[in-house]
Structures are given as structure tokens and as C-alpha cells.
Design goal:
The chain is about 15% helix and about 30% strand. The chain is an alpha+beta fold and about 700 residues long. The strands form 10 sheets. Strands 33-34-36-35-37-38-39-40 form an 8-stranded mixed sheet, with helices on both faces.
Length: about 700
């Protein structure tokens, strides 16, 4: 039958050509092409799915990197839960984020900074019309949540600075009556906090984040909490009378510990939090409170071993909302959990589990027991929304597809893709299928990782290979689309993404194996993946490269200080002289917890510093970093570059102005990718092209922007 219909189609086309004397319209399939650097800016980030109360619509955001304008833009869209044509909800040309439906379904509130102002809450009527600004605070609104009756919001606001208060005071002045502006004088920072620095913020003062309630009718915020503590993650009780939140207010100086607890305060409080109920007393982190439908219980994420901080598994727990004995539900599971939500009937709790190179949506009974996976498999589920009707919308990434929104009906089954934001681009590309592989390390430990063969892979042929240690160290590579892996594979490389010991998703014992022992077991595991690829006959042992970012950059420094088997290295945002980072980055608490005080335990600090082995490094190495990165400051790259340059080794340093730890400017991201390719092509492949690409002019904004 299908063959007959195909012939009929050709007959109709032929008749049209015969009688109308017009050429036939023939569609010639375009063969898929290899991915490029510029494709990075065509991939749009789809995130933050939010189901409407009736479960019929999903609001979500789409972020686009605009290379010509050298900026990023985020817009809000909505799509029917069963799929269909998406509808834009926010205007083009301004970024909007964090969409949240009012519980009565009439409004969609979101965050946006418009006309170069502060980030405020804006309100859209579901029936249409222009967005209306709902808040007008001197400072940015960091977060908000609707009350169950849709009449109020809870806002998360940092205490305003004197400059913000002065600006708000003068806001109403007309331009014609303004006094002559004097050059702005930068005041000195006066610092007296133990934790005094943070990436993307800089130096810290005592301005803290607190909760405020806003009556939509009155539009005057009322402060609910106060003090020298940070309050966040507010959640309304089902009856709208109480607010649960997380805060580090259990100790006199919260900068000294990792502790945070779940607290409850009256939503009608007028004493700025003088009367609070402490729900949890665990000395580790307790975060992400979620109420049961009957208001009697709060589910939350707990970390039980503060001395292990990031290395410790984060479990799901429940506690009485009035305080009392807590119960940990996932002790036997031994996997990190996040984003707990009670089911509509209150009988179970949903959560995201980090497990074996994936993130799945899981569910466990309120009383504990077996864990099921409503959305499972080799995929990466970043976030989800659960409607009272039982529908689920989730942001999911797979190895061959970037972020999209998927929907799962209350009856279960397989989630259906309901957005197709990146489909057209993906249809054009020839991708390298990522393979999840397992191999043994030097000491027999079983290790896993993702392996990408070149897009034009030919069995029996050995390829130049790039090892890419991941950041963290407590993190992992997941079953998700990765532009860099695909870009390297498109340029003829075998790409190795190992999850060595220290990685999350394999249990606490596996994770803490590198505690105070960096560059040892993780080095062995990284090398084991290289050996595995060589043994499989796909990696060329004479053409190996290595490179990573953050702890991946630190791993790169450890690797090239212990072996000369790599022809080239790229160390991004790394550090190698540990003691020089104490008090310079924002990890003083982590340093002290894991390594001890540097003046008391200097031997361990130096042992874990690859800088002292710099004389043994002969690998041509490119160092990179952001100028204002306080996470892993550029100091680390500068020190390694200086040492290798002094020794007469092949090296280069690239510093990106105005960038923090995670780059945001599209032009800088493009430049970084091009430098990756040029450095590896020259030193790993041995190509005659320069190791440093020619400088490109910076993008310029269009007239009027």
C-alpha cells in the first residue's frame, strides 16, 4: 500500500509538469553535517518547566546566546501539556525568567530587569495583555513564591545597600531638575566577616537575604525575617498561614559552619522573625523544604556528615512541621537527592536522584521503602513540576538531544516530548553517539565514563584522543548532550569523559575516596580510561591531549606533573599552589575542613599542590581563566604559566576580562572553543596551523542598543 501511494505521488507530479509546463518540485535530502563552534550559539537552553494549576499548560524559559550582540536573552513561553504550538509569553529584547503560575491559574508572575532597572516581579494576565510590574524594591528580587490563595507573594530580598536606598529616594526626580552629576567615587570595602568573598559578588558585607510578604492589593512588602543570617527557599503551608524556609541561623556565626536548618514562621508575622519554629536540628545542611498536602509534615534534603561537606550524600528526610523527630527515607539508597515534592495525595514524595551518570525522577512512599522511577533511564533530568492533577512536566536532556520539556501523564508510561526548540538544528547535525563504558583502575576499582568516537569513525583505525577530567571534584559527567564533546568528535578526536573516584552518583564511599588525597586515585582512574581506550584499539597512544575546567583544570595540572604521555594540555580555571588560595578564593571553610589550617598542616597542603612538581612538566600547556573569578581565581593559571615560562617550556596564558568562573559572554565562549581546537590541532595532531588562532574583532552592539 505504501509503495502504491508513493507511485501515485510521482504520477501527480509528472502530470503537473506535463500540462502546466512547470518544473517539478523535488526535495533533495541534505546530508547531516559535523557540528561547529558557531552551532554552540544556535543551541537554545530550555528550562524551568512550570505546570498550570489545571495541568493543561506548561510555562518554561528559553535562553539564547546572541553572538552578534555579545549577550544572552531569556524569554518565557508556554505550551499545551499534550504538545502543540508554543506561545511566547514575554517580550523579545528583554530577559525574563522564573515563571510561576498563581494557584488560581489567572496569572503568570516572573522576574525581569527592564529599562536597566532592578530585577522585579512582573505579572501577566493569562487572558492576555501587557505585563505589569508588581514590585518596586530598591534592590533586586532574588526569588518569590505565590500564597495558596493567590493574594500574596513571599519575596526573597537582600538588605538594600546605602547606594540602592539613595537611588530609590532620588528615582522620582525629573531629568531637568537633577543636580550636576559628580564623578562617582568608589568607597573602600570594610571587611569584618570570616567568609568575606564570593564569586559573582566579590567582597561580602553584612547585608543578608530575608523574607518579605507582599499583598497584591496593597503592594507594600512586609519584612518577615531579619538578623545576620541568610534566609531562602520559602514554601507556603497549604493553608497559607505559615512559611517554611532554610537558614543558617542555628549558630552565632554562620560563616564558621556548613549548618543550615528548616525553620517555620507565621506568614502574618510583624516582629521580623522574633518568633520562629526550628524544624530540624541536624548539624549538617538541611534545605529545600516541601509541605505535605495536610500541612503536618515537611520533606527536605539533608546532609548528615558536615565534616565531609560536598563529599557526603544528600538524603531525603521528613519531619513534623511543628518540630520533632526526623526520619531519613533514603539511607539505603546512598545517592544524592534534590527537589523533593509530595505527591498530590500526600502518600509519597518525588525527588531527583543523581545515579550512575544520570539523573532520574524517583518516588518513595511517605513511610519509606522501595524507590520507583516514574522517569528513568540513561538521561539527565534537571528539574520538574508536579500539578495537583498528577501531570508532570520535566526538563530532560539526552546524549543526542539538548534540553527540551517532556510531559508524563498521571497514568505513567513514557514521557512525551512537548517542546521542539532544538529539533531543526539537531536534524542538520551528524553526531557522535556517546557510549557509557566501564573499566578497571590500577587498584582494581570499577570506574565508568562516557566515550565519544569521531563522527566519521572507521573500525580498526586509531584516533587522536582528548581526555577531559570533570570539575567539582564532586560532580560527574551525565547522559546529556555536550557541545564540546561533539565538537571535538567532529574534528576527528576520540573524546574521553571519565567519572573517577570523587564523582557523585556512585555512593558516598566512592565520592570521599579522594578526600584530602587529590591527584592520586582520581589520577589513576583518569589514566585507566586512557588505557582502556588504547586497549580497545581506538585511541592513538602517540596522540593524546588532556584538558579541563575548575577541578578539571586542577586534575590537568596533577596529570601533566605526573606523566609525559600527553602531547598537549589545557588547564582552565585551575590552581596548583594551594596555600596561596587560602583567603584569596571563596573556599576558606572547605580548605580548613579538608586539609586543616595551612600553618598547622602545611605538609598536606604542599603534598596536594602540583605546583611543586612543575619542573617535571614538559607538556605544552595553555592556561585560561576569568579575570574576576573568585571561585578558582586566575592566580592559579598565572602561577603555573609563570613557572613554566621561567623554565623555558611551551606555554601560554589567556585571561578573559569581566568573566567569573562560569563564562557568560558569547564572544569569550567562542574564543575559548577556537583556542581549544587550535592548541590540540597543533600539538596533538601535529598540524602546521598555529597553536594560537588569529585575534578576532570583538562583537559590537547594534546602533541604539
Amino acid at each position: 500500500m505504501a509503495f502504491a501511494l508513493l507511485l501515485l505521488g510521482f504520477a501527480v507530479s509528472g502530470r503537473a509538469q506535463q500540462y502546466d509546463a512547470k518544473p517539478a518540485s523535488v526535495t533533495v535530502p541534505i546530508p547531516p553535517r559535523a557540528i561547529t563552534v558557531d552551532d554552540y550559539f544556535q543551541i537554545r537552553e530550555v528550562s524551568d518547566p512550570q505546570l498550570s494549576p489545571d495541568g493543561q499548560w506548561v510555562a518554561y524559559t528559553v535562553k539564547t546566546a546572541l553572538l552578534k550582540e555579545d549577550k544572552n536573552e531569556e524569554r518565557i513561553w508556554r505550551v499545551p501539556i499534550r504538545g502543540g504550538e508554543p506561545v511566547p509569553m514575554s517580550a523579545e529584547g528583554v530577559s525574563s525568567s522564573h515563571p510561576r503560575w498563581s494557584p488560581d491559574g489567572k496569572y503568570l508572575a516572573f522576574l525581569s530587569a527592564r529599562n536597566e532597572g532592578k530585577t522585579q516581579v512582573w505579572l501577566l494576565n493569562r487572558l492576555g495583555g501587557e505585563a505589569q510590574r508588581l514590585t518596586d524594591t530598591p534592590q533586586n528580587v532574588d526569588d518569590f513564591a505565590w500564597s495558596p490563595d493567590s493574594r500574596r507573594l513571599v519575596l526573597v530580598l537582600q538588605d538594600p545597600s546605602p547606594e540602592e536606598l539613595e537611588s530609590a529616594k532620588n528615582k522620582g526626580e525629573k531629568a531637568g531638575t537633577e543636580k550636576e552629576k559628580k564623578p562617582k567615587t568608589q568607597k573602600p570595602w570594610v571587611i569584618d566577616r570570616l567568609q568575606f568573598k564570593e564569586d559573582k559578588v566579590g567582597y561580602l558585607d553584612h547585608r543578608r537575604t530575608h523574607l518579605y510578604t507582599l499583598d497584591l492589593a496593597g503592594k507594600t512588602p512586609t519584612q518577615i525575617t531579619s538578623g545576620d543570617y541568610d534566609d531562602s527557599e520559602p514554601a507556603w503551608s497549604p493553608d497559607g498561614k505559615l512559611l517554611a524556609f532554610s537558614s543558617n541561623r542555628s549558630t552565632p556565626d554562620p560563616d564558621r559552619t556548613y549548618n543550615s536548618d528548616i525553620w517555620v514562621v507565621s506568614a502574618h508575622n510583624t516582629d521580623k522573625g522574633a518568633q520562629l519554629t526550628q524544624v530540624t536540628t541536624n548539624p549538617g545542611e538541611d534545605r529545600s523544604p516541601a509541605w505535605s498536602p495536610d500541612g503536618k509534615w515537611i520533606a527536605y534534603v539533608t546532609q548528615l556528615e558536615p565534616k565531609l561537606f560536598e563529599y557526603a550524600t544528600r538524603h531525603l528526610a521528613i519531619a513534623p512541621a511543628s518540630g520533632g523527630e526526623a526520619k531519613v527515607l533514603t539511607l539505603a539508597f546512598d545517592r544524592n537527592v534534590s527537589e523533593p515534592h509530595f505527591s498530590p495525595d500526600g502518600k509519597s514524595v518525588y525527588f531527583i536522584a543523581d545515579d550512575d551518570g544520570t539523573q532520574n525522577l524517583c518516588r518513595i512512599a511517605f513511610t519509606g521503602g522501595e524507590i520507583t522511577r516514574p522517569i528513568g533511564g540513561r538521561l539527565m533530568l534537571y528539574s520538574y513540576s508536579l500539578a495537583k492533577t498528577g501531570e508532570i512536566a520535566a526538563r530532560i536532556v539526552t546524549l543526542d538531544r539538548p534540553d527540551e520539556i517532556y510531559a508524563l501523564s498521571p497514568s505513567g508510561g513514557k514521557p512525551a516530548q512537548i517542546t521542539h526548540t532544538n529539533d531543526a538544528l539537531m536534524a542538520q547535525l551528524k553526531l557522535a553517539p556517546g557510549e557509557y563504558v566501564h573499566f578497571k583502575s590500577k587498584d582494581g576499582a570499577l570506574v565508568s565514563g562516557y566515550l565519544y568516537k569521531p563522527v566519521d569513525y572507521t573500525p580498526g583505525k586509531k584516533y587522536p584522543t582528548i581526555l577531559r577530567p570533570h570539575g567539582g571534584p564532586v560532580w560527574a559527567y551525565y547522559a546529556e548532550f555536550d557541545h564540546l564533546a561533539q565538537l571535538l568528535a567532529a574534528n576527528g578526536y576520540l573524546v574521553l569523559f571519565p567519572n573517577p573516584r570523587g564523582s557523585s552518583g556512585y555512593g558516598q564511599k566512592y565520592c570521599q575516596a579522594i578526600y584530602a588525597d587529590w591527584g592520586n586515585k582520581d589520577f589513576q582512574d583518569d589514566m585507566a580510561m586512557v588505557d582502556y581506550a588504547i586497549e580497545q584499539g581506538v585511541a592513538d597512544p602517540g596522540k593524546l591531549g588532556v584538558g579541563g575546567w575548575s577541578y578539571g583544570g586542577i586534575s590537568t595540572d596533577f596529570i601533566i606533573a605526573q606523566t609525559t604521555r600527553f602531547k598537549a594540555a589545557i588547564s582552565g580555571a585551575g590552581e596548583a599552589l594551594n596555600v596561596s588560595f587560602y583567603g584569596h578564593d571563596h573556599y576558606q571553610k572547605d580548605w580548613e575542613t579538608e586539609l586543616g589550617l595551612p600553618w598547622e598542616n602545611r605538609a598536606l597542603w604542599d603534598k596536594l599542590s602540583p605546583f611543586y612538581k612543575v619542573a617535571s612538566i614538559t607538556t605544552p600547556t595553555l592556561f585560561m581563566g576569568g579575570e574576576i573569578d573568585w571561585n578558582v581565581p586566575i592566580l592559579g593559571g598565572e602561577q603555573m604559566y609563570q613557572a613554566l615560562k621561567r623554565l623555558g617550556r611551551t606555554t601560554e596564558l589567556v585571561v578573559y576580562p569581566g568573566e567569573y568562573h562560569g563564562f557568560t559572554m558569547p564572544s569569550h565562549i567562542k574564543d575559548r572553543l577556537e583556542r581549544y581546537l587550535a592548541w590540540y590541532a597543533h600539538y596533538v595532531k601535529g598540524e602546521p596551523t598555529p597553536a594560537t588562532p588569529p585575534a578576532q574583532p570583538a562583537p559590537t552592539a547594534k546602533s541604539g542598543e
